[in-house]
């Protein structure tokens, strides 16, 4: 089944048909798996946020969707909960009960949301999960402070376990966080460059997205006593899954349906992001690639793109597609997905856990938000 090439909101790649050995993965209830991760981690996550001084506790609660802008209880969209699900499965991959992975799940979620708070401010994003972002509601200062506080809480959650395994887990989380920050710095710097290579873009996305997913899928195993070889193999799965995840995100950032993504139309084009479809299109040969390069070079000289019409963004998106950027990114998502799933063969784990990790990988590359 090939990806859609003309309809907004139908851009995510489809995974090639599973072979007979993957039949168990096809029967996994992904919704239940994600809900388990959310249900087991959220109480601990909320307790951690409650430790924050006022008003940071309230601001964080708004960000997580637990309250609205007026402080009233809300049932907001807290995200897909892929990382908590991976952390719990990680513990099970090491032969430990899923509960062992909960502190790791919470720590990774805290770091992930620290990055979202800061990214929204740096990117000027006014919407996340179908409502105003924290900096838009509570101001830039609170977005920065609460992000910093969440990062500190993440380390505290692990270190207060006071075990050798917790120390190992904290080191992995810290390394992943540094790589995440490196990736964000690269992403920002690329916005002001006319040309970025595909290799540079993949390195940036590996840092920005792959590193934390790699940590999520190894941290539970480390807390469960797994050796470094096992944790490293799980990290390889998570890293390549992160690249597949980001490739899909890049597709959605241009062609995604705003009602599904919760972001503006053509959001990545508005922010001048050198995402994979853009970079791949610019690297291609042909008139569409050349014309796209001319337009983006002219755009770089504009102080902002707020005055652009929808048609102007649509023109750029059409050129990216004509130059092959959309199809290349779709195929790259599939390639990274295949590498991620293959990495699971290096870990001795229960068959059901392997099937669940495989199914989660399939889910990541078949989505609309």
UniProtKB/TrEMBL annotation:
InterPro entries membership: Isoprenoid_synthase_dom_sf, Polyprenyl_synt, Polyprenyl_synt_CS
UniProt xrefs under Pfam families: polyprenyl_synt
Keywords linked to the UniProt accession: Magnesium, Metal-binding, Transferase
GO MF annotation terms: metal ion binding; prenyltransferase activity
UniProt region (Disordered), positions on chain: 1-23
Any Gene Ontology biological process: isoprenoid biosynthetic process
PROSITE patterns: POLYPRENYL_SYNTHASE_1 (PS00723)
Family the UniProt entry places it in: Belongs to the FPP/GGPP synthase family.
Name under which the protein is recorded: Polyprenyl diphosphate synthase
Lineage: Bacteria, Bacillati, Actinomycetota, Actinomycetes, Kitasatosporales
Gene: hopB
